[in-house]
Automatic annotation (TrEMBL):
One of its GO terms (biological process) is sterol metabolic process. This is sterol 22-desaturase. Keywords: Heme, Iron, Membrane, Metal-binding, Monooxygenase, Oxidoreductase, Transmembrane, Transmembrane helix. The chain crosses the membrane at residues 38-55, 98-115. PROSITE patterns: CYTOCHROME_P450. Its EC number is 1.14.19.41.
Length: 518
């Protein structure tokens, strides 16, 4: 190393012995000096870069130890390219490499679990691991959003929110879901009536419209639901695992922030209006109204002083957590039923039995309770193509996850669900869509409920399980009785797009014509 510094110091000595300022050196001497100095800087820089690269590889290998995964990580970016273009085959390769495996992206050391037991252990160990929302999430959802709470604060806050999904509340939501779905199906009859159209965006809008009406009732106008729905796509696009970190104009995060601002304007207005109406003795007709009533109930034990902003943030978090997953679940529900005419026939037979041909009568929670076959269809569709493949968590301290491996503190932990949901011992013919497996109480599927990780597990398990399941049942029930279905198969039908929830790569092209008996 010493020789690296020889040049400049001797040149400096020469310069000082002439006691001339550097700029007055003869040009040839000056050139030699500058050239030598440049070389020194070059060597120094190369040495530092090399040292950092060696350090990077050493740290990666020290953390990875014996876990399967690349022996060396790609300098600096690691598997960044893969996270930009997620691919199901690449994921499967990673999951099948071991129950625990290692990767690195931008020097974030990541441990992926692919077995039911390890995934559940991560989700159920709040003292070692907590959700790691992507970097963009705090910009988009705002740092004060309850979704960033952890530990006891999270448990306490969530206890209050659980009250919004009681059976009584869900019963009220179903009448709203019924009305919104009928409205959309009138439009679908026109839009999808002549040629097959991609279902993905209409299904997204149906979900968004339904959720906004369920959450905010008539406290927001029609044009706001359209606007929020359109802008929300910008939020989805900003939630990639890795994104340009600064919210500069033109970036995805910047656009998502604008989308959040537009949504928050309407959601805060809805909270304000709901409070006024309930104070004037109005009857609850949406989730916000239920919530305001609950907070005013003398027996309510939690915090009562929720601001409009805070309530709006909770609704924003529900939309954030639900929209893509529910749209994915619904689109695959359509695709699976359409590709299995025997299932479609059974769903229709059940509808006929339960509703006795009266399809104009609004659906209720009690009627949906009498549709075990449809419930099995939804459950199986979500198993075959789980909308959420995995959720990122963070090891808050060294996490002894197995007898021979401790996840280093601050690593990312990714419990993935796919292998558990496709375990051939629990689900024979795991890739086949077989709703009947859920109808036999003795089946291995029913005997192993802990394998069913569609909704996650532990303290952060999805809060909207019943709401989402019933919504999918309701939409599919109504679609099977209202329409004849034609699914246009394309070369991309069975390819999976990860956005980041799963969709058929051709967005499921469907034609719906009104059903004669409907
Ligand atoms: C098919 C539809 C849906 C699927 C597959 C799904 C799946 C999930 C999964 C896997 C998690 C992470 C669980 C964990 O970390 O253990 C989650 C969390 C969450 N989901 Fe859902 N979800 C769906 C619909 C919904 C709906 C409709 C809502 C809104 C009412 C919702 C609200 C939430 C919230 C708020 C969380 C975070 C809970 C917490 O941190 O305490 N989800 N969901």
């Amino acid at each position: 190393m010493a020789s690296f510094f020889k040049g400049p110091s001797s040149a400096a000595a020469a310069a000082s012995s002439t006691s001339s300022p550097l700029y007055s050196l003869p040009s040839a001497l000056s050139f030699a000096f500058n050239g030598q100095q440049s070389f020194t800087w070059l060597y120094t820089t190369i040495a530092i870069v090399l040292a950092l690269l060696i350090l990077e590889q050493t740290v990666y290998r020290a953390k990875k130890r014996h876990l399967p995964g690349d022996k060396w990580t790609i300098p600096i970016i690691g598997k960044f390219a893969n996270s930009m273009n997620p691919d199901m085959d690449e994921y499967k390769k990673q999951w099948n490499s071991g129950f625990l495996s290692a990767i690195s992206v931008f020097n974030i050391f990541i441990v992926m679990s692919s077995s039911k037991d390890y995934s559940r252990k991560i989700l159920n160990s709040p003292t070692y691991a907590e959700p790691w929302l992507v970097h963009a999430a705090k910009h988009i959802l705002l740092p004060e959003n309850w979704v960033f709470l952890t530990g006891k604060d999270h448990v306490d806050y969530r206890r209050g929110l659980n009250n919004l999904f009681t059976r009584k509340a869900i019963g009220m939501y179903i009448s709203i879901q019924d009305a919104v779905t009928r409205k959309h199906f009138k439009e679908w009859a026109v839009d999808f009536g002549t040629t097959a159209q991609p279902l993905m965006f209409p299904a997204r809008f149906l979900n968004m419209d339904t959720s906004l009406r369920v959450f905010c009732g008539n406290h927001i106008p029609d044009e706001a639901t359209r606007l929020i729905s359109d802008k929300y796509w910008d939020i989805t696009k900003a939630l990639e695992l890795v994104n340009f970190p600064l919210p500069l104009p033109g970036t995805k995060i910047y656009k998502a922030i604008q989308a959040r601002k537009a949504a928050m304007y309407w959601l805060e207005l809805a909270a304000r209006t709901s409070k006024k109406e309930m104070a004037n003795g109005g009857e609850p007709s949406c989730l916000l109204d239920e919530w305001v009533k609950l907070l005013a109930d003398p027996s309510y034990k939690g915090r009562r002083d929720l601001t409009d902003h805070e309530m709006a943030l909770v609704i924003l978090s529900f939309l954030f957590a639900s929209q893509d997953a529910m749209s994915s679940g619904l689109v695959y529900g359509f695709q699976h039923i359409a590709d299995h005419p025997e299932v479609l026939a059974k769903v229709r037979a059940e509808q006929e039995r339960v509703r006795q041909g009266d399809y104009e009568k609004p659906l209720t929670l009690e009627l949906l309770d009498e549709m075990p076959y449809l419930q099995a269809v939804v459950k199986e569709s979500l198993r075959v193509q789980p909308p959420v493949l995995m959720v990122p968590y963070k090891a808050t301290k060294a996490f002894p996850i197995s007898d021979d491996y401790t996840v280093p503190a601050n690593s990312m932990l990714i419990p993935s669900f796919y292998n558990s949901l496709h375990d051939a011992e629990v689900y024979p013919e795991p890739d086949t869509f077989l709703p009947d497996r859920w109808l036999d109480p003795q089946s291995s599927a029913n005997a192993n409920p802990s394998n069913y990780l569609v909704w996650g597990a532990g303290p952060h398990r999805c809060i909207g399980v019943e709401y989402a399941t019933l919504n999918m049942m309701l939409v599919l029930a109504m679609a099977t009785t209202s329409f004849e279905w034609e699914h246009e198969i394309t070369p991309k039908t069975n390819k999976i797009a990860i956005l980041p929830t799963l969709f058929p790569a051709d967005h499921c092209r469907m034609k719906f014509t009104p059903r004669k008996s409907a």
